[in-house]
Each structure stands twice: as C-alpha cells, then as structure tokens.
Amino acid sequence: MQVRVPQFIEHDPKLLGPLTLSQAIYVGAALFGTFLLYITIGEEHFIPFLMISGLMFTVALFLAFYKVEGLSISAVIKNSVDYNMKTKLYLWKRKQIPVYLSLEKKKEEKKASENNKVILKKRENISEVSKKVDYDKK
User: Model's pTM, two decimal places?
Assistant: First the structure.
C-alpha cells in the first residue's frame, strides 16, 4: 500500500508574500525604526540618519534571512546564551521512587524457596576428608 509522505514539513508558512512571520516582523521593525528616526533627526541630520538606518536594515536583514546550519541567527543566539548561562557540572541524581511493601510476595518467595531446597549431606569426619585429600595428591 502506497502512502503519500508530506514534503517540506520544516518550512514556516509564508504570510506576507515570500516572507514568513518572523522575517516580516524583522523587516517591519526596521521600517518602523527608520520612520521614527526620520521624524526625529532625519531632516536636520540626514547623513547620520542614512548611516543609522543603513545599519538598522543590515541587522534586520541579517536576522531575518541568514541561516547557520539550517537555524536562524536568532535561534543560534538563543541557544548560545542558554548554553553559556547554564551550569556545566552534571551530577547524577537518583530518582526517588516510592517503595511499596507487600507481604504476599514474601510468602510466595518463601514457598518457592522451600520447594527448591537442596538436601545437604552430613558432614564427614575430618580424618576421612584428609584421607581423601592425601589419596588425591598421590
């Protein structure tokens, strides 16, 4: 029986044309920041405005589109911060499992051990054992 396997499972859905939600947020934040920057200092100081807005767009495009080994830069930065903030000492901790005692199991074990008893021979005298050992040496 043939089954259709879905493809492109790992891709984020495209919301605004070719952009995913996170890409649209990064680019939109850069556009909004540039607009606010133009309103505040853009008309009087146009050259610093261009430099700052160019830097903002470069960072936004870098965060939105650049990937390292299939992960976005924001995920890489988050993973590196998590790794560097956590402790590096790993100790084994035993899990506490509640112990339940049952008398029935012990009774069953006693019955099983009584059925499997081995009949022991009586101890022989030491002199007889020494004769056997001496005989084996010769």
Answer: 0.53
Task: Give me the number of domains the chain comprises.
Answer: 2
Residue 9: Cβ within 10 Å count: 6
Closest CA to 61 of 79, 74, 48: 74
| Maximum CA extent, the chain | 119
Encode 92-123: b = buried (16+ Cβ within 10 Å), e = exposed. eeeeeeeeeeeeeeeeeeeeeeeeeeeeeeee
Q: Do residues 23 and 69 share a domain?
A: yes
Identify how many contiguous H helices and E strands the chain contains and give both numbers: 5, 4
Structural domain for 128, as ranges: 111-137
**What is the per-residue pLDDT for 38?**
94
68: enclosing H helix or E strand: strand 67-68
CA 87-90-93 angle, 5° bins: 125
- Do the domain assignments include residue 130? yes
Question: Is residue 98 a part of any domain in this protein?
Answer: no
pLDDT (tens digit per residue) in 49-105: 999 999 999 999 999 999 998 888 889 999 999 999 988 777 777 788 877 766 665
**Which of 29, 26, 33, 30 shows the shortest CA–CA distance to 65?**
26
